[in-house]
Amino acid sequence: MSKEGAGPRQDAETGRPDAGTDTVVPEGRGDVQGISDLTYRIITPYLRHERLHRACFVALVVLAAVCVIASGVRLSPFPLLPLPLLGTAYFGLRRTRSAQGDRGLLVWSAVFLTGILVAFWVMSVIGTHLH
């Protein structure tokens, strides 16, 4: 159930007892009303799946292994620079697993994704400069 309108109606008559009140309307098909509806109805249910968490953990381990192997192959410590960012992403992933509410789930998922994206960016910068 959702409320239509965000405040008192503009065409409300002042003498009527229900003047200026919002009406509750059934949602019907479940259409998404805005970005917050999109977030809470579509995105957050998928962020709670255990398989998604496991796949993200495996991706983090593979990326960390690639950084360590690249450091050994290039005989340089520069490929190890993304490891703290991957550690931040892992911390966000662990907190995502234990998040109680939707807001915490979204915040820690954003920390995870930001850590991954910045780590990829650092890897590309290092690859460009060491090439």
Summarize the entry for a quick read.
This protein has 131 residues and is mainly alpha-helical. The protein has helices spanning 35-47, 50-74, 83-97, 102-130; strands at 2-3, 24-25. The chain is elongated and about 55 Å long.
Work out the strand percent: under 5%
The overall pLDDT average reads 80
Helix content: 55-70%
What global shape is seen?
A: elongated
Order of SSEs: EEHHHH
Q: Structural class from helices and strands?
A: mainly alpha
Rg value = 24 Å
Number of domains: 1
Transmembrane segments: 52-71, 105-126
Region (Disordered): 1-30
Keywords: Membrane, Transmembrane, Transmembrane helix
Would you kindly provide a written description of the structure presented here, covering whatever features stand out?
The model has no long low-confidence stretch (mean pLDDT 80). The chain starts with a strand and ends with a helix. The longest helix is centred in the last third of the chain and has 29 residues. It is mainly alpha-helical and 131 residues long. A two-stranded antiparallel sheet has the order 1-2. The chain has one domain. It has 4 helices and 2 strands. It is 63% helix and 3% strand. Keywords: Membrane, Transmembrane, Transmembrane helix.
